[in-house]
Amino acid sequence: MYQFTSESVSNGHPDKVADLISDAVATFLLDGKKHHRAAIETLVTTNMVTLAGEYKSDKFDKKEIEDIVRNTIKRIGYEQDGFHWKNVKVYNELHGQSADIALGTDDFGAGDQGLMFGYACNETSNFMPSAIHYSHRILKRIEQERGFDIDHWIKPDSKSQVTMNYEAINNPLGIDTIVCSTQHSDEMSINAVRSAIEEIIRDELKEVNLNKTRFLINPTGRFVIGGPDGDTGLTGRKIIVDTYGGYAPHGGGAFSGKDPTKVDRSAAYMARYLAKNIVASGKAKNATVQLSYAIGVKEPTSVYVYADGLVRNEFADYFREKVDLTPQGIIDKFDLFSLDLTKTTNYGHFGKEDLPWETVDLF
Length: 363
Fold this sequence. Notes:
14 strands, flat, alpha+beta, 4-stranded mixed sheet
C-alpha cells in the first residue's frame, strides 16, 4: 500500500483571483477573433490589482478592462475591507504584442517553445486521478454552499487537500485524510466552522466510505483575513491544481491569460484529449501523452505516449498520422477562439465534461 496527496484551491484563493482576472481580460481582448492575441499576467494584493503583459486587439479599452476586473472580483464575492471590488486600485500596464513574436504566431506557428503533458486514468468517471478529483469536488461544494450571498459565514478563500490510500497503481482503497481550510466570518467560532465544513464534505462525498478518514478542518484555527488581503496572488502559480494534482508530469507552462496560439495552453488541452481517448476506449488503464513545440514552427517536435507502464509508439504514430497537432489544427478542433476562457479557470482545466477537449470520439 502507498499514499498519494493532491490539493485544490477555491475561486477566491489569491492566485485564482489573479487567474480569473487574466482569463476574463484575455477573453475580452480576443473577442472571438483568430488574429487577436493575449498574454495577460495579473498581480493582486490588498485593494490593488496590476495587469501586465501583451496583446494584439482592436478592443483594447482601459475603462472596459477596469470594469471587467471589478466585475470579476464582485462575481467571486469580495466585498471586504482589504479587498473590495469598488475600492481596489487597478493598474493597467498592458502593452502591444512584440513584432518579433508576431512573426511566428500570425501564421499560427507555436507561440513559444515548450513541452506539454496530458494524462488520463480509469480511477474516476471523468478519467482523473482520485485525489485531485475529490479535492475539486470539496471546494466546488463549499462554493455552492456560499453561493452569491455576501453575508454568508463562508468567505471566498478556501483550500482542500486529499490523501488517498492505494493498493496499486490506479487502484485506490479510500481516502485517508481530508484537509480543508476555509475563510469565515468573524462571528463564527472555530468549532462551529469545523463542524459545519465536515458535514458539508461528508454530504458531498456520501458515496465514499469516510468512516476511517481523518478530517483536519482549519487546522491552524481561525481564518478570517484571507484572499488577496491575506496573501498576494499571481497568475500561473497553481499549475498543479490546474492539471492532475501532481499525479502526472507537467511541462511547466501556465494556462490562464494566454490565447490559444500559446501551446502552453492549447497543446496541453490536446494532450489531455489524446490521453483520455486512449483510456476511455479501453486500450489502457492510464496514459501519459507529451507534445513538444518550437516557437514559430507548426508541427510538434515530438510526440510521446506512455501507457500502462510501457512506451507506446503505435499511439504516437497514430496521432501524428490521424490528428492535426499544429496550433491551427488544435484551435480548429476545439474552436478555442470561441471559448469563454473563464470557464476553464477554477477547479482544474480537465475532467469537466462541458469542455471540448474532454470529448471521446477518436477511436
